[in-house]
What does this fold into?
Amino acid sequence: MTTIIAFVFVFGLIVFFHEFGHFLFAKKSGILVKDFSIGFGPKIFAYRKKETQYTIRLLPIGGFVRMAGEDGEEISLKPGFRVGLELSPDEKVKKIIVNGKDQYVNAQPIEVAEADLEKELYIEGFEDYDETKKVRYEVARDCMVIDGKIETLITPYDRSFGAKSLGKRAMTIFAGPLFNFVLAILIFTVLAFAQGSVPIDDSQIGKVMDDSPAQAAGLKEGDKVLSIDGKSMDSWTDIVNTVSASPGKTLDFKIDRDGKTQDIQVKPDTEKQDGEKVGKIGVAQPTTDSFLTKITYGFTQTWFWIVQMFTILGNMITGGFSLDMLAGPVGIYTSTEQVVSYGFLTLLNWTAVLSINLGIVNLLPLPALDGGRLMFFGYELVRGKPVDPKKEGIIHFIGFALLMVLMILVTWNDIQRAFF
It folds into this structure.
């Protein structure tokens, strides 16, 4: 049960921040957001506030923000339609009842002659279906169309996604991945203060483990490593890389201790890591409790993981692709089960890393992903006009279908690894 709660927390938080980025920038750009949804599939909770419906759906494998002009919904009232109109005190149409008129006893019956619910916002028709009584009403910008139990808000063209400038559209799409990085920065910053100190990439020895090669050789916490085997050490990463590449080999450490230079020989133990032999000397990364370092830790750690993940992506491309390199919801769930056992702070760290991963994946220039959308915007910028919406829609649909197939294959692979 703990793992399920942790998984919902991790996945829900990451998806919420991603979709909230889209939502916030859409609102700032004046785009009508019809639906803010966490999850896919059937609704298990729905709440409408003003023009947006907020929903939680059954399958916790993602989310979406449905913006006006992107969903393919076009409300049209053709001549001859018989509808009911509810008017506001200033004689503007606030509701158009297409079906279920008997439930709106005060609705004005009208036979539609002509209507524009996008640009000019009006409806003309014949009252009481009498062709001698033609009237024209202005339609309110927040008018609802009632079709039985389905209520749909009309979309004035100036509030649709496509009506906005290229910059606003691009920023609205980019905001999703951006907010994944923002979430990571916030989490890493919280962790910095919760832990009391943060690791630093300095060429210094941190805590020395008992009964370790470092302790046996005489290394102490605070020693600054100047060089190893004559090679200059400028960071903790340099030390780790040099020691890891030298299992069982005696290394000559030149250190600075209290302003005095010393030479210490250390022979790393040999350990297996991912099927390869690596060297370990039993020292921890140095830490600091500097307030400034804690404040900047969220940014530096997020950047570190962004670089790491792009490195991994590069290795996947150059070294050959395998499904084992990917993980879907099942793989994330099994990994979360292991992370939970290390405590809440470790779970938060895991959440931050996953959030960065989702942000980067969504920026890949693939159809149906945010990066694919941005790629089309780049093409529009160069070409001077957008791609035909129908052609772009087909490309994104094909891309989405292929991603779903990949998701099924990855999920099946995760299941096999976890249970067989």
